[in-house]
Amino acid sequence: MLLAQISDLHIKRPGALAYRRVDTGAALARCVAALNALEPRPDAVIMTGDLVDQGDPEQYAHLKHLLAPLEIPYFLLVGNHDERAALRAAFPERVELHSGGEFVHYAVDVGPLRVIALDSLVPGRSAGTLCDARLAWLATQLDAARGKPTVVALHHPPFACGIGHMDALRLDQAAADRLAALVARHPNVERVICGHVHRPMFVRFGGTIASAVPAPAHQVRLDLREDAPSAFVMEAPAYALHRYDPATGIVTHHAYVDQADGPYPFYEPEGALID
Ligand SMILES: [Fe+2]
């Protein structure tokens, strides 16, 4: 079972560049082509928020157009750049986006995995939270998933990563503590997966592993100085492939959108290691 995760697409209107530099639409088109070309093909793609750049209906229309060629079922989460009503209006047929009342949260099965998608959005703010209502909903979902391998997905990482300007925008500590306590009571949670930080990260969290993924377009600069200025770099576009099997659990592979040089053989046709 393969679950691909992409995050932080930041789609603009057609022709517009993010931060006057980044063609996020072209980047997503390349990412969709790379996902379609995977062999074996993922069972689903989860997109962990910041789907568009300003929560604008035109941007969601462009997102939908760019995702149309994706030949794999996909699931959408909201990030701080998203707007719930505009997302729902652009995807009226996606029942899971409409089932959570005020919040865009839902649980779906992808093969043997239960995926619980959270909504950590606070309208008008870059940082995220999980309020009483959202945590209560999560508790109910986790109880319903007991014994089932489960992935909890949310946009905002519930941990500090050391990149100061991003840590100022993370899931608030009170919510992170309550999330960790809930997850710790459910050892069937294989992963807590996030976006927002535009970088690959892994950390122990609530007795499981929390992780974050790079973006298909721009990445946040790896700068661990406390006063690191907010900046992005055009490092290689990438995503995660979470491979589940019952014996191992989830192994997360870091995968690149662009084809690298190769592949080249290690061995001669007659079997000797190439010297
Ligand atoms: Fe974000």
TrEMBL record:
GO MF term list: cyclic-nucleotide phosphodiesterase activity; metal ion binding
Transmembrane segments: none
Record InterPro entries: Calcineurin-like_PHP, CNP_phosphodiesterase-III, GpdQ/CpdA-like, GpdQ_beta-strand, GpdQ_catalytic, Metallo-depent_PP-like
Keyword Acyltransferase: no
Species of origin: Paraburkholderia terricola
Domain Calcineurin-like phosphoesterase residues, every copy: 2-200
Pfam families for this protein: Metallophos
Protein's name according to its UniProt entry: 3',5'-cyclic AMP phosphodiesterase CpdA
Protein keywords: Hydrolase, Iron, Metal-binding
Stated family: Belongs to the cyclic nucleotide phosphodiesterase class-III family.
